[in-house]
């Protein structure tokens, strides 16, 4: 009998390895090491994703809101007289001033007088010609009356001859019936009547034609007299204009000529400044020139008080990259205004209702209005692209990129220059 190894085998009951304390200790140490490694990797990745950090005390944060945006422009201007007429010499001559620069004048007061012998001589000649034509017209009227009287007399005489010829023919008819006169005498009486009728008719027609001719000649002289009167009145007006009077109540601004100097026609003599009406002369940057319009509302700031106004004129030319606009006060003009007073004005270019807007800040200049840093829930600021619209004095319109309720950084910082994600610290 061959012996086997069955007697050497021992049956063992299987045991779980987790019941062994030594195995459990080793497993716990392994899990702890793995968790530490994972935490380290996550922390390392998180620290590498943030491009920088900023302290909340060093930045400004604003919330995106919905509201009305007033697009405006703040400009500087100076107070000028709204009415400052310059008076010119009406003719060539010698000027004599009766006032000096700075004198207060009233409307209608004599300011200067121009002595023009040439113009006065022309007025005398035209007046003499007017008188001559007036005398000729009066003579023509008398001559017309005499001629009409003669024409009437001729017509009346022709009528008398006609009446006599009619009576002579009637007498000849009676005589012929009684055979007192011959046929030849009767025919002669008939011819005399026909001649008398013809002469009367021609006398009446000639009288009518003479009346028309006389009326035409009289009318021609009347037109010449009327024309000469207009020329004389025009010269008289020019002579009267040699006395230069003030058109407004105000002050003499400056004298453009010296006393008793020779001046040509249309030469500026002096300027009168009306101190009762002022306007603001504002310099607007050239890039806003297309946005300006007449009757556009303006707020004028004077010593902290806002005065309403409106644009009344816009200069067509650009000088030193600026356009000059005239603004008048629409309410009662302040009493303490004076020439060349410097004031600040706010031009209300546009009013947009119910738009997304946010407070203006230095981030617009830093990014050109193309990006903003929006705050998220992880105490971070994320760079997002935006599109801006109208720019107001304190707010800017957001066309796209942000929603109502978002918060963004409105200030600028070096850490935001090229950062995509910035951590915020208290």
Automatic annotation (TrEMBL):
Sequence similarity: Belongs to the membrane fusion protein (MFP) (TC 8.A.1) family.
Coiled-coil ranges (or none): 135-245
Originating species: Microbulbifer pacificus
Recorded GO MF terms: transmembrane transporter activity
GO terms for cellular component: cell envelope; membrane
Keyword Calcium among UniProt keywords: no
Subcellular location(s) of the protein: Cell envelope
Record-annotated Multidrug resistance protein MdtA-like barrel-sandwich hybrid domain positions: 94-273
InterPro entries in the record: MdtA-like_BSH, MdtA-like_C, RND_pump_MFP, UPF0194_transport
Keywords, in A-Z order: Coiled coil
Domain Multidrug resistance protein MdtA-like C-terminal permuted SH3: 355-414
Protein name listed in UniProt: Efflux RND transporter periplasmic adaptor subunit
